[in-house]
Amino acid sequence: MKKLSIISLGILASLQWANAQTISSKKWSDLFSYNNVMAMKEDNGKIVAAAENGIFYYTISTGEITKLSKANGLHEIQITAFDYNPQTKIGLIGYQNGSMDVVSPDGVTYIVDIPIATGYNGSKKINHISITGDKAVVSVGYGVSIFDLKKKEFGDSAFFLTAGVYEASNEATIVGNRVYSVTNTGLKSHEMNTTFPVFTTWSTDMPGAFTHIDSESVLSFSSANTAYLFNNGVSTPLSQTFGSVKDVVVTAGNIIVTDQNRIYTFNTNGNYSGTVSFGEECNTATSAGGKVYGGTVLSGIKDEANNSYKPDGPYFNYAYKISLYGENQFLVSSGGREARYNTVLSNPKNPGFYFFNGLEWIYPSMFVGSTTVFNVLDAIANPSNTDEVFFNNYNNNAGHGIYKMKYNSGSKDFDLVKYYDLGSPNNFARRPVGFTYDDQNNLFATMSFMDGGSMGIAAYDKATDEFLIKNVGISSDAVQKPVSYEKLLWIPLARTNNFLVYDYKGTVNISDDSQYLLSQSNGFSANSVGTISVAIDKSGDAWIGTDAGLRILSNAASAIKDPDPKVNPVIIEQNGLGEELFRDSSILQVEVDAGNHKWVSVEGGGVYYLSADGQQTIKHFTKENSPLPTNSITDIKVDRKTGKVYFVTYSGIVTYQGDVADVTSDFGNVLVYPNPVVYSNFKGKVTIKGLAETTNIRITDTAGNVIHSAVARGGYYEWDLNNQRGARVASGIYFVLMTNEDGSDKATAKIAVVN
């Protein structure tokens, strides 16, 4: 029986950021894929495995799985190298950007100061890590470096420089006091002594192009299709011939060679022991308890009976948009576009979409091994029948269009119901972008590259089970996902300085429709070349994100019908001067929570959490100060019932438990935290959540003196523990007295302060 829990094992006792800043907390969690296992190590009945965005521990006897990612301790994503010492319980993780994490029983330490060779301009990626005792050899694109795991610092480095050209160390290992490295020109070695950094003093033990190496009881290495046992300077080929060697692992009793989907084992004398096939491609393998375990590309860890073990998650990490519905159910599309319109992102894994049914992740079998190239920009469930799902294919290849699927809960799969080609005259034209349902469950899709260089609307006619197509006739063939509000479709146009509002008259009949177009004359910045995103807030204002800032159309549904509607920027005060919020920034996404606060994704700038009017920045999350995988968030969605926020990126999804949920005119479950507030443990603001939409707050001391008062909007409030004079309050008990806007509901709370 497989059990899943957040990582225990005592390794998260003190999470450390390079500048002592903690970037993870209990509010964050990851929705990463752990299918692609790249490295594994056995530890007394446990297997420690590294996937793309995190590591996980699988206990063989109990089936328990625990995980560690940027959401609860690590500092980066895109793991490229990993090793672990079962004796010291210390692991070392290398990343694509050249940084590393040291994972120990004392916590996680971030290492950013890896030595870089002078004049080297290539990739900083950590190619490989091998731990022996308290030392690790780290392979990079310009050679090797020795890392001291006790001191958490680098020692000597050898830069593989010949005639002005750097050579990569593909992998390396330590045997005794000697480092062995495999490169594209040979097996090279050197003792760890004073001349170690001098590459001209290194020996070439065997010329050739070699890729993998490992050692424990013996040393073994490989070329593309031959594995060798190395003993006293002699390289002896192992007896089997391989198609494509993916990894070589040496344990106390075995040499294990991974050859695509087959795993070959040899004893430490090089004698062939047997072969195990896992029925799919593997990156690596190891042995535990006399059995072989494969680290697969698509199924996590597999045992010899083809059982799969991994934390539950989507099939891949690629993600673009998310659609929430029902009881904790959602669909994730995995496509994407470069420059927001015509260049299709190349994704050889052909991912399609992923589905979470409230309990587990489901991946449609339709996408597994499909010859159709899929670039799914959006997937949406029918609100009146959530088993019915529509998704689009934006590719400029055969098969682009819209698909209708039916979820089969028995088989936990999707069945194809119908494919709609949208009357496209060729592979390039009539490519669907995004969906929306209105409040009458009418389905609409936006389409790019209509005939004549325009964009279009596809309205789904339930009676005929067909999409009715309208060429809108605007000189913009790029379009974004629409938003439905007040029987109008609000549509960003990503290739021109325009924004479209499409009036469909409340029906799918397209013959009587009309439209409104906002442009630079309506207030968009002169240097904008496209609108990207839109959200309608609880006040009925349209927040429109462009590639050159943010604009607001107040009272949007009526204002759009005015003769000359105006969009306006948010002006904030900076050093006594008015400044436009997000001036010249590309606004990828805007989302509104239950308290009318705004989450805004800025390309390259992370995510901002703003007050309802945008005047105050409440939080600013980046990949440097939070578990966000990147600083460009392609989608944000808030579950207004729970307050959970979903951040979607091309590198995976993380969630944040927000403080605002189910905000009404009355109080919910009022909660104060942290409480008590002990200054030595916490120096931030105290949060009061579960408030009414508008709450009058008075905070008094035990004598009844009012020491702080405020009006809170949006369902929660943060108190900085200062009194009305701006000084921190003394230690003691404080009472929070609260009423809603019309005084019909009241609530109280207590806060204990210890300075």
From TrEMBL:
Key words of the record: Signal
Signal peptide: 1-20
InterPro entries cross-referenced by the UniProt entry: PorZ_N, Secre_tail, WD40/YVTN_repeat-like_dom_sf, WD40_repeat_dom_sf
Entries under SUPFAM superfamilies matching the protein: Calcium-dependent phosphotriesterase, WD40 repeat-like
Listed name of the protein: PorZ N-terminal beta-propeller domain-containing protein
Gene3D superfamilies: 2.60.40.4070, YVTN repeat-like/Quinoprotein amine dehydrogenase
Source species of the chain: Chryseobacterium populi
Residue ranges of every copy of the PorZ N-terminal beta-propeller domain listed in the record: 49-202
